[in-house]
Amino acid sequence: MPSIRYPSTEFPALTGFTVPIPETWQPDPTMGTQFAARPHTPPQGFTPNIIGTVRRAATGALHNQRTELDQRATQLPDYAERGRTETTVDGFPAYHIEYAYRHHGTITIAQMITLVEVSHPHAVDIIQLTATCAGDQTADYWDTFRLMHADLTVQPHG
User: Which residues are involved in binding Mg(2+) (predicted)?
Assistant: First the structure.
């Protein structure tokens, strides 16, 4: 009986990525994601964080993910967009959006999301990097989030 293997040419390993974090931040593997980090000493209240995931998707995934993200985000209570752009990360097509919304009527949440599409001969991977803080924390964390997103690098071969 023939067999197939993962990873292989037909089923490449998931794309890897690197995000530099400030010295005052630490990895947080307890969040149950492929990548997460937060400040060593979180402020009172909401803990700012950055989370990264990679998942296999169909061709055209960036467009589909962008459309889904835009539709989902704009339906959030008191949605306020801070900006969006189509860009590239290490030569791969990407989409970046920044917005805030009211969470359960009690707290404003600010998010920055970057989606990157990495095409392989037989597969497409979508990297999603999401930075989140409370609305009243943006003055302290937004520039740091922007640097982390801007310095995201992609390793297409896992």
Answer: 86
Q: How confident is the model at residue 158 (pLDDT cuts 50, 70, 90)?
A: low
Strand partners, 56: 125
> Is beta strand 123-134 parallel, antiparallel or unpaired with respect to 49-57?
antiparallel
Task: Write down the domain spans for the chain.
Answer: 16-155
Q: Residue 61 half-sphere exposure, CB side, CA atoms within 13 Å?
A: 19
Binding residues for Mg(2+): 86
Residues 28 and 36 sit within 8 Å (Cβ to Cβ) = yes
> Is-contact 91 83, C-beta < 8 A?
no
34: number of Cβ within 10 Å: 16
102-119 pLDDT per residue, tens: 988 789 999 999 999 999
What is 16-155's CATH superfamily? Mog1/PsbP, alpha/beta/alpha sandwich (3.40.1000.10)
